[in-house]
Amino acid sequence: MKHVQHIKTMNVAFLVYNQVEVLDLNGPLDVFVKANVILPGSYHCYTVGKTRDAVYAEANTMAIVPTYDLQTCPKPDMIVIPGTNPDQVMQYLKDDDFQNTVLNWVKDHCNNGTVIFTVCTGSMLLSETGILDHYDITTHSMLLDALEQHNTESNVKRGVRFVDQEQLITTAGITAGIDAALYLIGKHHGQEAVDTIVQLFEYQQGSSIA
User: Fold this and answer.
1) Can you give the residue range of the structural domain that contains 32?
2) Is residue 3 part of a domain?
3) H/E segment holding residue 171
4) C-alpha atoms less than 13 angstroms from C-alpha of 148 in its C-beta half-sphere
5) Which residue among 139, 150, 168, 200 is least packed, with the fewest CB closer than 10 Å?
């Protein structure tokens, strides 16, 4: 298969936390995993939690044991931040411990050049960090107004599946994370890799981008 030459393996860290939305997490994760099967060595994907203790996915349907904690994980080239339900998002915005540990870890890496990729309400989780300031951003349609109210220095985009601002990628609701992940595979490796993954997924891809 002809593809764009990839210089080195990209470390892709998927943040997990209590009540994380399963498809927000697993949709993009599976895209990158499939890409790594097609193009071996392209991506090193792993989950990261505050600790190695199990976290519970939305509605407590399953427990997830992170591959690494914040202190032991490999340095990420990209951090994927899945969302959670809106009520839970608002609780996390007021959770000083979550802000000062998990989100400070994200901010520190962002300040050192790591790409931040939020899925659905994952962008809303960053509202107290300053990471979103001066960027075009989006989120699930249910939280667009709240995202705008909490991020007055940002330009909230409506009616798009995802927004690429180079170091920051934000997406609309849930399945838009799959679309943005496919888009990033195309950006890194070309359309042929995307077409192969879409065929494997039997997926109807969305393409609206700001």
Assistant:
1) 10-201
2) no
3) strand 168-171
4) 10
5) 200
**Tell me: the pLDDT tens digits for 108-141?**
999 999 999 999 999 999 999 999 999 999 999 9
| Tokens 């838009």 -> residue | 176
- Looking at the domain assignment, is residue 5 inside a domain? no
The pTM of the whole model exceeds 0.70: yes
Residue 65 lies in a domain: yes
Task: Compute how many other C-beta atoms are within 10 angstroms of the C-beta atom of residue 40.
Answer: 9
CA atoms of 137 and 149, how far apart (whole Å): 13
The alpha carbon of 72 is separated from its chain's Cα centroid by a whole number of angstroms, namely 20
In the block, tokens 């044991």 appear at 65
CATH value at residue 63: 3.40.50.880
Report yes or no on 208 lying in a domain.
Answer: no
CB of 102 within 8 A of CB of 70? yes
Using a 10 angstrom Cβ sphere, with 0-12 exposed, 13-18 middle and 19 or more buried, the burial of residue 53 is: exposed
Domain count, the chain: 1
pLDDT digits (tens, 9 = 90+) for 15-33: 999 999 999 999 999 999 9
